[in-house]
Amino acid sequence: MSLFRHLARGLRALTNRSDTNQDVVDEVQHYLEQATAAHLARGLSDDEARRAARLEVGGVTVLAERVRGYGWENVVDTVVADLRYAARRLRTDPGFTAIAVLTLALGIGATTAIFSAVNPILFEPLPYPRAGQIMMISELRAHGEGARNDGSFGMYRRLAERTRSFDALAVLKAWQPTMTGGDQPERLDGQRVSASFFRVLGVKPALGRDFESSEDRLNGPHVVILSDALWRRRFAGDRTIVGRRITLDETRVAGDNGYLVVGVMPNDFENVLAPSAELWAPLQYDMSQGRAWGHHLRTVGRLRPGLSSDMATRELNVLGRAILSEEHPPTYGPTIEFLAASLQDEVTRGVKPALLAILGAVILVLLIACVNVTNLLLARGVHRRAEFALRAALGAGSNRLVRQLLTESLLLAAMGGLVGMLVAIAGERAMVALSPPGLPRIGAIGVDRAVFGFGLAITTLIGIAFGLTPALQAARSDPYRALQNGSRRTAGSHRRTRSALVVAEVGLALVLLVSSGLLLRSLKQLFAVAVGFDSRQVLSMQVQTAGHRFASDSTTHRFFADVLEAVRHVPGVAGAALTSQLPLSGDFDSYGARFESIPTIRDDQDASAFRYAVSPGYVETLHIPLVRGRRIDDHDGAGAPRVALINESYARRLFPGIEPLGQRLTMGPTEGSPYTIVGVVGDVKQMSLAVSQSNAVYIPSTQWHWADDAMSLVIRTRGEAASLAPAVRRAIWSVDKDQPVVRVATMDELLAASAAERRFALVVFEAFALAALVLATAGIYGVLSGSVAERTREIGVRAALGATRGTIVALVLRQGLTLAALGVGLGLAGAVAASRAIAAMLFGVSRLDPITYLGVIALLAGVSVVACGVPAWRAARVDPAITLRAE
């Protein structure tokens, strides 16, 4: 029979069952008549021929069933029948079904939600052609903690001229221009990039063209490329925007024609290096500039095919050392190493440990959910022993029983998976809302086809996994013994399996609880760290200048001085000051510092320091303690002798046992007289609470080599800091209404945000740990409750023979607490191993912290006693007379 006819026959059998059955009956009847005719031809009588034919056929009904059993449609028919039966069985026990479905939905939904975040961030390649060839190039300081430096334009230019490992290199830096010409000015996030930037990424504008090399030169033409989002938001998707000019940073006010739009990026372009960037302009640097060798640029490159990152790193180190020996740039230390690492690894480096730890945690929750449902199925199987035995006695084989029970499990898992996908969608949205700032590729997080496929696959695997044990238990049971009232042997086998599962469940719960406890203690230790200033009642915001009217340093200084004066007159302001970089805000501005009394820096000393250009009153406004000397005051102006403050740990490292006051240093460009240290202040956390103290130099903003075009205001208020933000904005705009005010936040908010990654991991772990605790408690209760029900006769006999209620309660409690103790022992070993995964997120707490472990053990012990108490109380109330009468 051809495949087409085979399929057609099967479809007809499934869609027109009555006609198909009649065809089978007719075919069997025809075969019986032919057999009868054959026997008549042999000389048998009519009755003998019919009898011989029936004996040969073996019965019309049996033969008809055998014929119906052939063909693929029979498999479909059997599966549908199994599903119908499974649905009927689940419908008759709605309580069991609801608990099992919700338990599975929790595990599947949580796992799928976490996968929706982990997959695009860690596993999927970046959205660029041959993304594995894109490398991030970093410079490592060989001394200290091996911290990474941003690159320099001078090093990029020399490497681009000599490298043979890269097809292209590019450098970039942040750019925040103000777009005018509309209803109101808008401060935009963008990037200044070298002309080869988009070629390194392997992308091209959807409209227009890429940057040309001739445009990336000092004082080159003003050209810009827009993102698709900015193009649609500000220009309504007008395709004629290419070739038109737009006003950025008041270029037209100065007589310039503005920035020429040369391209628009595709709508699916994802800039993982700066997700918020909406426009790009050429870097336009030159080797003659003083900042050519300053560390303030990020460097990326595209490897040539067939080369590895290790090979590129070796070449970079050889070239880098040769370039440094030739150029002798003063800002480079004596020992610098280069590293070429995958862009994806660099983008995800900060969040990878946390995401992998969270993925491990949700897998533990899924395992606990599966164990709980398996226990529910085993308990249900005990009550269905008679049903299984009767079906086996009536001819159902073990394979048939296993298939039927697996069908029930898969149907349960499918229902749990369906509800779980709703949980996953809600969980994914909650996770995005709670995610820490800077989480890479957050726009790619969502329940897409890959996530749906993952959910489908995990649902199927779970259905088979948790259904296999009960199915095999039922298939191995002895029908004769199971039909007897005293089938204790079968029940005992079930109890042992369920007890083992509860031990595993408690162990897994302890792993999650210990991890959550360690993170909680770590976060508590982190917030106990001294930040170096008083964050209470302090408001911060950044004020930026743009346009040719601020080309003069004196104009910029005057603008910020007027802003500061206006803000200080706002009612409710107790003090205000300006700084070039704000602690815990993500600002990173460091320069090489050289002291006259220390001509050479040892390899174990860091030559760079954070540079704070501040106004008088900054130290006082933030309540940074003065250790010795004096603060910066109003006398330290542009024409006064240059002065500086350094932080305490910096002074201690450089001048052990020596008076730091009066020491002279140069920082940044070498022109001008050196700065004299007039004071030492306390250490302030700049990058995060967890990063060790960094070198810091505070210089009067008017004495720095150039005027910073962006300054952060710090305002100490007499009342609630956040409520004063509108009034402070109005004061700033009273000086110049065209200068946007951005990054408005209280210092307490910045303090909390600095620990956002750890807080995010803690919230997720706490949620999973709570779910695990509830499921483990339910598991202990379920096993003991089922055990009491199965041992009712035994408990009744014990009571009849004189056992007291206390003895019976102790018996049940001992059984439950023994399981909990075994689970705790297993979980301790697992927690010690699993704590390695979160070691990078811990601060001030050992991963073997005894307080955490003892606290979790005490919590589990208390919960276990409660879970054991109800079944023990029920067992103590068993009436021996009623029990024995029932026997």
Can you characterise this structure?
With 887 residues, the protein is of the alpha+beta class. Helices cover 52% and strands 14% of the residues. The strands form three sheets. Strands 1, 2, 3, 4, 5, 6, 7, 8, 9, 10, 11, 12 and 13 form a 13-stranded mixed beta sheet that branches. Strand 4 (178-180) and strand 5 (186-187) form a beta hairpin. Helix 12 (352-383) runs parallel beside helix 15 (449-476) and helix 23 runs parallel beside helix 26 (850-876). The radius of gyration is 38 Å and the shape is elongated.
List the helices and strands and how they pair.
Blueprint lengths: L2 H13 L1 H25 L4 H12 L2 H9 L3 H21 L1 H30 L10 E8 L6 E2 L3 H10 L3 E10 L2 E3 L5 E2 L2 E4 L3 H5 L5 E2 L14 E4 L1 H8 L9 E4 L10 E6 L14 E4 L15 E6 L5 H19 L8 E7 H6 L3 H32 L1 H9 L4 H37 L14 H28 L2 H4 L5 H40 L10 E7 L8 H16 L4 E7 L10 E6 L12 E7 L3 H4 L4 E4 L13 E5 H7 L9 E4 L7 E7 L14 E5 L9 E8 L7 H11 L5 E6 H7 L2 H35 L1 H9 L4 H30 L15 H27 L3 H7 L1
Parallel strand pairs: 6-11, 8-10, 17-22, 19-21
Antiparallel strand pairs: 1-2, 1-12, 1-13, 3-6, 3-12, 4-5, 4-9, 7-10, 8-11, 9-10, 14-23, 14-24, 15-23, 16-17, 16-20, 18-21, 19-22, 20-21
Main beta sheet: 13 strands, mixed
Q: Rough shape?
A: elongated
Cα separation of the termini: 61 Å
Structural class: alpha+beta
Q: Please report which band the strand proportion falls in: under 5%, 5-15%, 15-25%, 25-35%, 35-45% or over 45%.
A: 5-15%
The radius of gyration computed from the alpha-carbon positions, rounded to a whole number of angstroms, is: 38 Å
Number of strands: 24
Residue ranges: pLDDT <50 for 5 or more in a row? Answer: 485-490
Query: What is the helical fraction, as a range of percent?
Result: 40-55%
Figure out the total of helices: 27
